[in-house]
Amino acid sequence: MEWVDSLEIAIALDEAHPGANPLQVNFVELREWVLALNGFDDDPEHSGERILEAIQMAWIEERED
Question: Which whole-number Å values give the CA distances from 53 to 18, 27, 48, in the listed order?
Fold first, then answer.
């Protein structure tokens, strides 16, 4: 997975943190959680607010489905 794989990351986050509320996860924590995911292999410095926001929104949408 890379930073651009927001849906795949969201699904993995949902599985790794089933009790977490995506709306209450700050971007610092979200970034750390993404970096800790098995299968994530991208440059940590390539993340930014827009990417983290896209991941958070995909996670919220995943929860609503």
Answer: 19, 8, 8
State the pLDDT at residue 23: 95
Find the farthest-apart pair of alpha carbons in the chain and give their distance in angstroms, rounded.
31
* Mean pLDDT (whole number) for 9-34: 97
Residues in CB range of 39: below 8 A, 6 or more apart: 1, 12
Strand, coil or helix: 27:
helix
At residue 52, the pLDDT reads: 97
Between 1.10.760.10, 1.10.10.600, 3.40.1190.20, 3.40.50.300, what CATH number should domain 6-64 receive?
1.10.10.600
